[in-house]
Amino acid sequence: MRLTAIKLxxxxxxxxxxxxxxxxxxxxxxxPNGCGxxxxxxxxxxxxGESSAKQLRGEAxxxxxxxxxxxxxxxxxxxIELLFxxxxxxxxxxxxxxxxxxxxxxLSRDGNSQYxxxxxxxxxxDVIDLFLGTxxxxxxxxxxxxxxxxxxxxxxxxxDMRQVLExxxxxxxxxEKRRETENRIRHTRDNLDRLxxxxxxxxxxxxxxxRQAANAEKFKQYKQEExxxxxxxxxxxxxxxxxxxxxxxxxxxxxxxxxxxxRNQSRDIADQRETQRRDQQxxxxxxxxxxxxxYTAEAELARVExxxxxxxELRRVREQELEDAKRSExxxxxxxxxxxxxxxxxxxxxxxxEESEDVLARETQxxxxxxxxxxxxxxxxxxxxxxxxxxxxxxxxxxxxxxxRAEQLEQNLNGLGKRLERQLAEWQRLESxxxxxxxxxxxxxxxxxxxxxxxxxxxxxxxxSELRSLRQTRGEQxxxxxxxxQVLATQKGQLTSEEALQQAALREDDKDLxxxxxxxxxxxxxxxxxxxxxxxxxxxxxxxxxxGFLRAVALPDLQDRIGRVEQWPGQALTLxxxxxxxxxxxAEGPAGAPSLASVMQAPAALSRLAGRIFLxxxxxxxxxxxxxxxxxxxxxxxxxxxxxxxxxxxxxxxDPQGGVIRREQTISELREQCRSMAADENDxxxxxxxxxxxxxxxEQKRAGYARAxxxxxxxxxxxxxxxxxxxxRLDQTQRRRRELDEDIKELREQQRDYETRLxxxxxxxxxxxxxxxxxxxQRQQAQENLRQQREALGAARRKLEGLKNxxxxxxxxxxxxxxxxxxxxxxAAELQERLTRQRERVARMQADFATLPAEDADTxxxxxIAQRREAARAALExxxxxxxxxxxxxxxxxxxxxxAEQAVEGLRETVQQARVELENVAVRRQTLEEQLAExxxxxxxxxxxxxxxxxxxQWEQKLEALERRIQRLGAINLAxxxxxxxxxxxxxxxxxxxxxxxxxxxxxxxxIAKIDRETRSRFRDTYExxxxxxxxxxxxxxxxxxxxxxxxxxxxxxTGIRVMARPPGKRNASIQMLSGxxxxxxxxxxxxxLFELNPAPFCMLDEIDAPLDDANVVRxxxxxxxxxxxxxxxxxxxxxxxMEMAQQLHGVTMQEPGVSRLVSVDVDEAMKMAS
Length: 1171
Description:
Rossmann fold, alpha/beta, 23 strands
């Protein structure tokens, strides 16, 4: 298979459609720098699946699309197509039958990249798989060698070199299969782990469902027994109510007769009471008139007596006030005399203290003058003493100082000599040049490792962060899924339970009825309760009012087949026409009560019935509206109490078949919740599976980064410790040498300074020795004078301080005396003012007292009024006595009337109570009959099956015991039986899947082992053949020397490949030590060795002859010519020798800026024409 043409359009600088035809095995591509020759190499790499923009010399994949020039606009699409001749059928597989193979890739600016093989759309993976093992596969491509790839090839790491050899051996296809097989194994193991978890969960669920199924069976059995017991209990109660109804009828007739007798007696007593009432009213009017006369006289007498008492009290109060005012006046006169005397006393004391203060002021001034003179003299004495104590003028101190200084200088001078000798010896021992060289090498290595560590650490942190996020997300989603499944199972169980109860309540489980309806062609009929919707709060009212109609069967064609109803052989049955529409019914009933139809949606027949039923909130409102009810109307409260014209029905206990409307609403809500949660469960499970796949990929990625990071950290840590150790030693050495230089210089300067200062100190010591003795005598005399002067100064200060304290105390006394005098004078003035006001008040009080009236003014008037009052009192007492006698007789008659009325009322209440009880018994009996009929029983039939000794209390005890057994079962999942069977089947299916996965895993592991064996064999054979051919070609290109390939490990699956080369006349050296030309020739030798082993469809060389000299270029061209016999070469070059070798030349020009054009020449044809 060979490359016949390359078609370019809109790719980089090839904006116009261009075809590069390759008619020979030696094709050269030439042209100036920058004209677009290397774009041909990029085009081939791009069309064979390259996805890295960096490898294509760009920043983004869109950079391969022509971006415009000065004269042209950018284009929107790039296209490259390779045409291969496959007439020999070397490309096997599904394309072996095609004589020509076309590979095309297109890219638009919106990022849409598409591939075609022979005109059929395909994936990038398909293109890569097509070239696997041909030398064009992936990054180990050795068929396209562009600029710089030569050095990358020979300097590649052993792992990268192994990939090149694997491509030559065709192992890359096996490795791809092995990677896919490993992925399948990993996915299979993950599936096994998840399957084991699911099996464990299902096993636990089976055990739980088995227990729930057993409880459900017990629950059904108990509920059947409960229904039978309730029916028998209702029959016993109905039998008891029959006897009670007969007894209450007899008792009601007796109570009515007694009531009529009591009413006749009450009417007679009422007539007597009316006569007595008229007599009592006449006597009461007379008594009230006499009482008014008496009260008038009594009030007039009281007024006169009150006026006399007030006058006496007022005179006494005025006398007391006058006496108090006179005493207060005398007290004020005494206090004013006392204050005047005190003021005179304060004035005398103040004059005496002022004279004493003047004397102390003069004495204090004299003491201040004495103190100032003593202080002045003390300053002069201290000044003389200070001058003697000055260090500069003290000969003794100067002598001691000079002596100590000389001794210290001698000691310092000796110490400096010893230190200088030690410092010089240490300076000669320190050297830093070897440490600097070691530090430079360590820093270079550390810098390289640090860059690698930063890049790898960033990759690891990114993978770790992604893994943590994925794990957290998975945990949250798994927990949410488990909780959702638990809630869904609970909701399904509750739904099944509610549906079972609803079926029992509506008789939907009555197989006989269902079979009969099906025979009549009414199998589409539904219970009316399924079609009834009632506003919230009125459910109990609707159920109590409609009763058995809720369990009726709604039929769409009832009117046409109504004659068949009589054929029903069973118990009571209600059928309703399943029609809807507007129903004319009263909007309001008595007292404005709304109708049941206004709060309910139901079939038309039921709505008409509900239009005669009206709603009230409570019993009080019902009692007010009952008298206005028509015979066909009914009232019902929120609690379900029903009222009619002359009857009332009260629900007793809990109706076992009641609550159907509320239950129907609950069932609808539960069904909707189950559907929603089931959909949510599927979505969550799908998301969890996708997340698990991403998590596995992230874990593998993180593990690889972690291993590489640990290794690199160890190397970096070791290198860092080594560099730090060298740096510390070098810093210490350099710092110590600098310190020693400074110390030696400073010590020598100090040594010279100390010698000079020691000579001067000895001279000064001789000068100050004589003057020191005279100074001692002068200092002793000055010290004595200073002591005497300080004692005199202290005495003067103490005297002055004492005088000042005495004067200050005296001034305080003067201030206090002035304050006391002022306060006394002020109080005297205030008392004088108060005395004047008090004298004026006494005078006014004496004048008022003289104007008061005498006590005997109204004595005669009081006596007349008293006589009239006594006469009125006597007449009043006589009238009251007569009225009392009349009222006594009236009370006796009233008591008799009250007794008669109470007797009548009591008998009336007993009669009413008897009627209510009788009606209540009738209603209860009817209710029991309806309940038994709804359950499919008649009371007479049930009573016949019971023993004569049976009673309701025994059956109630049995029913309570059965209910306790049901309650002990706890929450019942009625769907558990079916769920258990379903889960059992699922568990068996999962076990089958587990077996299949285990067998598949064994098969995949065997395939891995087979691939590994084949890979080892192929790799070993390829390595030996390439190594042998490489060893032959290297001396051919170099004119001598030797080269070989070495394995880094013994394991053929993991070992790397190292290139060893020794050009002629040189020792063995690593590739890195070779020159650029030597590296290029080594790479050419290795490439040609690979081509001879596994020739690629073609070989493209991009200026790899650039670093070669003329002699090497000649040898390179000879080798290319020899290999061109069976390998197709496309060579991009600037070298004339290489151009001469080509059989066909293609020139790339750029006459128009930014646009490449192609000029082709067949050299052989040109030579023939020239000849």
